[in-house]
Description:
The chain has 136 residues and is of the alpha/beta class. It has two helices and eight strands. 17% of the residues lie in helices and 38% in strands. Strands 1-4-3-2 form a four-stranded mixed sheet, with helices on one face. Strands 5-8-7-6 form a four-stranded mixed sheet, covered by helices on one side.
Amino acid sequence: MKSNFGHVQVNIDPQDLNFYRDLFAFLDWSVLYEDENMLGVGDEKGASVWFTAPIKPQEKNDYDGLGMNHLAIAVEKQSNVDDVYKFLKEHAVPALFGTPRHRPEFCGSPSETYYQVMFESPNRILFEVVYTGPKR
């Protein structure tokens, strides 16, 4: 059976929709749907992420607890990670865990790199933007 990633729904506070819209516009994803409680964005291969108001109130997300730890977005060039880092700084969003940085422990070859920036959204959703490929 062949399969691929389809979509993920992330429940958020609707007042933060602008953050997600701006972030994914910067990452060159298309808006698939938008209203005052929901934003759907899609990549060029058909995968999508849907940010929506929760059905019931909840505590802040704990990405180290049960559930999804983080959402990773792959980019084509190592410099794209640095561009996202600049975007985050312009939006007063701190990078986490000493990123951006290379993670040689995630590579299978010394000529390859795993270069990432990690950050938290306003709703404590942990994101990673990562380049994997030839070291530059």
